[in-house]
Amino acid sequence: MNRDFVISQFKSYVADFDAVDEGVSLKFAHSLRVSAWCERLAKALHLSQDDVDLAWIIGVLHDIGRFEQLREYHTFIDYQSMDHAKYGARYLFQDGHIRDFWQDDSQDAVMEAAISQHNVYRLADDLSPRQRLFCQLIRDADKLDIFKVCADGLRKGQNVWRVDDRDVENQPISEAVMKEARQKKLVPTQVKKTFMDFYVGTLCFYFDLVYDESRKLAREQGYFAEILRFHSQNPDSEAKLNEIRCLIQGD
């Protein structure tokens, strides 16, 4: 695989979008970092070099649908706009643009499954073992970098989720979100309403990490620990956050 060519083509694709919008540069950088996490996890799982390369290119392209989503809807929230993963998979595989990046079509079924399902609440039951492997790998890698994006955003006072962030320190955490958190489950995006709901949803990503290496990296990189240090001035919200911290420490 010619990685330089893949990156060059990816840069050309992204160049068609508004470079002034910080969301474009954020998602471009995120994609490259996720590809590095994919490579690191694939090596930790002792995959072949061909499979390491496959994991890497899935990481590069997994969020290709985000750019059109941002241009069309000015949001990254799928239920308010479009399913960016399904759009990306359709653009690459149904419309044939995967050949803009890589000529080998022998892994298309694996790549399409991984890209189309990297954002789903639960993976489909009919995946082959190989498809499931790469789906789990990209999902873990994506979460590892989302921890960084969120930590950076909290530190800089940025609204990384582009949702209601008024009076963040005093916002409540909804009971629908806490119901999922108490079960150590992912929080469906549809039930998240405020900044604090999305923040808790990010904490719950930790529960969904599949590989021991992923949890090890989440602890080592420091970003997840930084996210956990956020405190609320709302007594009820802070009590709920303490509850989640205890669940994470015991997991």
How does this model look, in words?
It is globular, with a radius of gyration of 18 Å. The chain has helices at residues 3-14, 22-44, 49-61, 65-73, 84-94, 108-116, 129-156, 175-182, 195-203, 212-221, 223-228, 235-249. It folds into two domains: 1-143, Hypothetical protein af1432 (Orthogonal Bundle); 163-251, no CATH class. It is mainly alpha-helical and 251 residues long. The model has no long low-confidence stretch (mean pLDDT 94). Helix 2 (22-44) packs across helix 7.
The number of strands is 0
CATH superfamily membership of the largest domain, which one? Hypothetical protein af1432
CATH fold name of the largest domain: Hypothetical protein af1432
| Top-tier CATH class of the largest domain | Mainly Alpha
